[in-house]
Amino acid sequence: MRVSSGVPGFDGLVDGGFPDGRLYVVSGPPGSGKTTFCSQFAAQGARNGEDVLYISMHETKEGIREDMSGYEFGFDRALDSDRVTFLDSFSSDGRRFFGLPGDRRDRSGVTNRLTGFINSRDIDRVVFDSTMLLRFLLDDDEDTMIQLLSSLKRTDATTLLISEMTDPSAYSEEHYLAHGVVFMHNYLEDEGMRRGIQVLKMRGTDVDTDIQDVEFTDVGLRVGSAATVTH
């Protein structure tokens, strides 16, 4: 079964969508569209009647709502629906869920609580923003990070992890463990800023690995030929 990204033009790059129940990393530099991509993924799940868990390690629910308020892909409605559970590290619930940085006794507890929540709620889609701050929470403990990612892979949810990275060849644990890696490009070309998207790997899928143009529109990101559509 394939899971639609909710991003016009992207699903065609990965044979119709993400293979469901797998773990994917969305990487790229700041401002390249990672959070917007994943927010469209979450909103698409809510529209489909799926249960979505959106975890932000650096932004509140109202903050991410404001960040996405300029788009018209239904993220605001998704957040207000009973289909999306939003969890951040600032609220009392979030602090109980994730613990506090430096609490070595609770490292494995984060994995158990997260996977337990996903399994008990039959969560279909997960967005995790971001692995950089998760590493900080886990005191950059590699073993615990690998344990967490491996446990996420064993759930039935389709999970997108946001990873800050400027060099697509600089792999870390999450890139090796993930079933797929999507890289968002953001660079100057011909005296202007070019944004692009590239599928670096997608296990079990015939993918187009060329860099595709990305356009930020009023309805969110559009990829490739879909980026030329005007509204």
Short description:
With 231 residues, the protein is an alpha/beta fold. The chain has helices spanning 34-47, 61-67, 75-80, 92-98, 107-120, 131-137, 142-153, 173-177, and strands at 2-3, 18-19, 23-28, 52-56, 84-88, 125-129, 158-164, 180-189, 192-202, 212-217, 220-223. It is 31% helix and 27% strand.
Which tags fit this structure?
Rossmann fold, globular, about 230 residues, 8 helices, ATP binding, two-stranded antiparallel sheet, 11 strands, about 30% helix, about 25% strand, 9-stranded mixed sheet, alpha/beta, ATP-binding
Describe the structure.
It is a single chain. With about 230 residues, this protein is of the alpha/beta class. The protein has one domain (about 1-230): Rossmann fold, CATH 3.40.50.300. The chain is built from 8 helices and 11 strands. The strands form 2 sheets. The protein has a 9-stranded mixed beta sheet with strand order 5-4-6-7-3-8-9-10-11, sandwiched between helices. Strands 1-2 form a two-stranded antiparallel sheet. The longest helix is centred in the N-terminal third of the chain and has 14 residues, at about 35-45. The protein is globular and about 50 Å long.
